[in-house]
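[Q] Does anyone have a clean structure-token version of this?
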Amino acid sequence: MSKSRIIRISIVGLLLISMLGFSLRSAITARAADKTAKADKRTAEQVINDLRTTGQQLSEVLESPQVLLDPQKRQEIAPKAIPPMKKLVSLFDELASVEQSAKGQAMAAQRQLLAMLAVMGDAESTTTLEKRANGKESAQWKATLLLVRWWQANKDAAEQGKILDDLEKLAKANSKDEPLAAIVAMFTEQAAANDELRDRAEKIVLNDLKSQAAQDMAAGIQAAAKLRALAGKPLTLEGLAVDGSKFSSSQWKGKVILVDFWATWCGPCREELPRVKKVYADFHKDGLEILGVSCDRSADELKDFLEKNKDMPWPQLYNATENPKAGWNPLATEWGITGIPTMFLIVKKGILRSVEARENFETEIPKLLEEKVE
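[A] Here you go.
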């Protein structure tokens, strides 16, 4: 979730579709929520409840966004993932028909679900995308088809370069299309075969799109690029712990450190905690340390959460003066963190190895623990 607590609808967001349901719910007016259901038409509230239930079923199958980028794993999960995904497509159609204020988000989510279905080899979804690419709002659907090819070619740099050629032309020809910006931004978030291709995708958003949505995304993209530039450099995190004491990661010399920028109010952050707790339980004895950087506004809420989660004994940085005012940890601001959860991995030498550790820290931590310090 971002600093303003807006949920970004992306491939990762769809894995947490129940949170999307909550976001849509907040957009629905009290008037709509109080409508009495007709015999042949459900209320928006009923549809959203169904969305959340079905989304939870899907999240149990799609445990990681990386699944969609692996042809073998896609094939393995397809029989279980396709039915709930198709149901979600239908539910978003229903939601758009019963609640106008939710239509934009519903259609955006539906586009991405159809893209995911097409990646999994669902012919019907591919046909639907192709048909819509020749109809109303064709630019958005054409970009979605390109996104399908982008995911499928995630290890083929040459093919992805051709895809970006087409995307750049599409963006320039439809530079003020507001919904198009969110689709193009997804090329910057997942599946680029190399850093150069990701940088090129980012430039399409920054230079070729002129909509307000693209301008709103620019700061986040620039911050992410700045953050990635930190990788490979020494990093020490210092600040105040939630109990008011001073802390410095320099005391963990020779340890592998997972840094988790998070907050108790952040649904995706809490969804990740079982993974974080497990890796701590498995590898703390071997030299793994975890440092939480809390973006909570209230120290009491954070302390209450930690009291209920005794299996999170690692330090939590929290600035009692700055956090409540900004709603964000000053360290997160210092390091350019604009969305949480964000995770860093620091190796034994104190070098920042990754600012995107959320994706694969379970597999990377054992490797880093085995590295010899020269």
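[Q] Thanks! Anything notable?
[A] The chain is about 55% helix and 10% strand.
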